[in-house]
């Protein structure tokens, strides 16, 4: 299938894990924005946040998304969790990709997954669940704004989410062919 798909969602929603497997299943190139940014920045995202601050990180993120959105050719793109915060990024997602999928998960589910994870700079606080709830409150409407489809399930496994995402892309591609 020839498609340009982007995955959006909260930190820990599975964009990287699901995106990599989805790309393998559909035999499409895979790009993870956070991984690319770490290559560009020459350090971990957590370290970069600590040394240069969030705004500087967001500028790099915006520049990379603009570059990726301007490219042609099939891709599965896993974005960073905060990419939807800037309107210019939401516009790039709308214009640069055929299909945007929102991997939705509740703050409580995300907390269970990320409990032992030290790599998410925004969650290195005393009350990470409170922070996740606040991020979710602000971002859930933004993810919904850019995405054509919401991929969710009450008990999501990675395999189940990959299958649901693949099905959505097949259906979207078939609808495009009929038009
Ligand atoms: N559906 C799922 N069920 C159980 N565990 C999951 C699921 N999706 C992801 N995970 C696990 O949760 C952790 C975070 O997943 P992942 O890194 O793919 O999230 P992400 O959306 O890319 O986060 P970020 O925005 O921070 O990059 C990983 O350890 C992954 O294996
Ligand atoms: O949710 C966020 O704002 C972030 C999520 C990660 O993907 C990284 O892009 C970074 O840690 C910021
Ligand atoms: Mg990721």
TrEMBL record:
Subunit (UniProt): Monomer.
Compartments where found: Cytoplasm
Pfam families in alphabetical order: SKI
Binding site for substrate: 34, 58, 81, 139
Biological role: Catalyzes the specific phosphorylation of the 3-hydroxyl group of shikimic acid using ATP as a cosubstrate.
Keyword entries, A-Z: Amino-acid biosynthesis, Aromatic amino acid biosynthesis, ATP-binding, Cytoplasm, Kinase, Magnesium, Metal-binding, Nucleotide-binding, Transferase
GO biological process, alphabetically ordered: amino acid biosynthetic process; aromatic amino acid family biosynthetic process; chorismate biosynthetic process
A GO MF term: ATP binding
An example Gene Ontology CC term for this record: cytosol
Protein's organism: Oryzisolibacter propanilivorax
PROSITE patterns, per the entry: SHIKIMATE_KINASE
The protein's name in its UniProt record: Shikimate kinase
Catalytic activity: shikimate + ATP = 3-phosphoshikimate + ADP + H(+)
Binding positions for Mg(2+) per the UniProt entry: 16
